[in-house]
Amino acid sequence: MRILRITPLHFAVLFCTVMGGSAMAQTNTVTVSQDAKFEELLNEKRKINSSITVNDRYKLQIFYGANDKARKALQDFKRDFKDLDGTIVFESPTYKVWVGSFSSRMDAERKLSEVRKKYPNALLVKPNK
C-alpha cells in the first residue's frame, strides 16, 4: 500500500481552493457630479440639431477626400463665398464639403454654375434621396 504525502504543490492547490471560496470582490460606488450649465448646453445642442434639416434641401458638394484637405477647401470657400454656409460631412472613408441649403433645384443649379467657376468639380446633391 502506498502512502500519499502532501507536497508543497498539493498544499498550494488546497490552500487556494479553500481561500478562493471565501474571498470577496471589492465593492465600490462611483459618484459623478457635473455642472448644471453642462446639461443646459447639451439641451441647447439637441434643440439645434433637431431643427437642422438635411433631407429636403439641395446642397452643393465642392470637395471630397482627406480631412485636412476638406478643412482647407471649406476655409477657402468661406473666404470666397461669404453668403453661403458650409459643413464637412464624413462618409467612410472620405470627407465631403457641402455648401448651401437650397429649397429648389433651380436655385441650387444657378448657384452651382457660379461656384463651378472656382470649383470645377462641384456637383449638386440632395442628401438621403
Automatic annotation (TrEMBL):
MF terms (GO), sorted A to Z: peptidoglycan binding
UniProt KW Signal keyword: yes
Keywords: Signal
InterPro entries xref list: SPOR-like_sf
Superkingdom of the organism of origin: Bacteria
Signal peptide positions on this chain: 1-25
Protein's name according to its UniProt entry: Sporulation protein
